[in-house]
């Protein structure tokens, strides 16, 4: 059990450091120092930085699936569930102001690096896209229209995160979240 606990701590630390410093600028030493383990113990769990990245992406995918499932259970309508997605900008406001969106920053960095794991990282956006598309279908949109609206909302939320981080503007996040929620309210239920 202790082995799994140490491995989980390594993944959590790597996830935070990749988010705050970037994948390329995070070393084994940074992660080992953060977890407070020796490099030898570190290498027992992960042999390469790419193995850690794969574990981080997998953990993020699991976390995202759980979050989407919670939204499914707690949302009383498709519009309400979509607003859960939109309000994640408020929930993560402080982190976004300092580091941008965790999904957007990772996928962008991996794309720039032409990293082999960029497709796996993009699966995070695909999860959101498919989930949002399903919510728009439940509202009454046709599949193509629902996908277009899902992509619009993903693009807008990424733009908000990027600009809010660039200008360090919390008020901008609040304003945009309000507008996006009003946009969603414009869809009548089926």
Average pLDDT metric? 94
Counted by DSSP, the helix tally is: 10
Distance between the termini: 49 Å
Q: What structural class should be given to the helix and strand makeup?
A: mainly alpha
Radius of gyration: 18 Å
Q: Tally of extended strands?
A: 0
What percentage of amino acids are in beta strands? under 5%
The biggest beta sheet reads: none
Overall, the morphology is elongated
H/E element order: HHHHHHHHHH
The amount of helix comes to over 70%
Q: Give the uncertain stretches in residue-range form.
A: none
Describe this structure in words.
With 190 residues, the protein is mostly helical. Helix content is 82%, strand content 0%. The protein has helices at residues 2-21, 28-35, 39-45, 49-74, 78-91, 93-99, 102-112, 118-139, 143-167, 170-185. Helix 1 packs across helix 2 and helix 5 (78-91) crosses helix 8. The protein starts with a helix and ends in a 5-residue tail after the last helix. The model has no long low-confidence stretch (mean pLDDT 94).
Protein topology:
Blueprint: H1 2-21, H2 28-35, H3 39-45, H4 49-74, H5 78-91, H6 93-99, H7 102-112, H8 118-139, H9 143-167, H10 170-185
Helix pairs in contact: 1-2, 1-4, 4-8, 5-8, 5-10, 6-9, 7-8, 8-9, 9-10
Task: Summarize, please.
This protein is an all-alpha fold. It contains 10 helices and no strands.
